[in-house]
């Protein structure tokens, strides 16, 4: 079993991801998102909206155990990130792994 933090960072560094609520919604709408990662301690209305859209579109969601500031730090960004869509995982195994 891989570590979600390492897989997300590797996807950001070597693959293609969309960061933020609007970009995630655009990726879901355009059917480009393969997986969506959500900060579990983020804004509940955003989490519920994205979860609902992902269920309709058949896109897998992964709940990151920390808050949006921690998710932003893992992505190497100096700001908070509540959600991110993985379009291309690059060298990451995030699409194939299961996380607790």
Describe the structure.
With 100 residues, the protein is α+β, with helices and mostly antiparallel strands. The protein is built from 4 helices and 4 strands, in the order H-E-H-E-H-E-H-E. The chain has a single domain (4-88), classed as 60s Ribosomal Protein L30, Chain: A (2-Layer Sandwich), CATH 3.30.1330.30. The longest helix is centred in the middle third of the chain and has 14 residues, at 44-57. It has helices at 4-14, 21-29, 44-57, 68-74; strands spanning 16-19, 35-39, 60-64, 83-88. A 4-stranded mixed β-sheet has the order 1-4-2-3, sandwiched between helices.
Secondary structure: elements and pairs:
Elements: H1 4-14, E1 16-19, H2 21-29, E2 35-39, H3 44-57, E3 60-64, H4 68-74, E4 83-88
Parallel strand pairs: 2-3
Antiparallel strand pairs: 1-4, 2-4
Helix pairs in contact: 2-3
């Amino acid at each position: 079993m891989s570590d979600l933090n390492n897989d997300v960072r590797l996807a950001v560094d070597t693959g293609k991801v969309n960061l933020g609520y609007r970009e995630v919604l655009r990726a879901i709408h355009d059917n480009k998102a393969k997986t969506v990662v959500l900060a579990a301690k983020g804004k509940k209305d955003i989490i519920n909206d994205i979860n609902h859209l992902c269920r309709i579109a058949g896109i897998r969601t992964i709940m990151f155990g920390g808050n949006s500031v921690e998710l932003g730090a893992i992505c190497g960004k100096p700001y908070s990130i509540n959600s991110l869509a993985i379009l291309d995982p690059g060298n990451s195994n995030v699409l194939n792994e299961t996380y607790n």
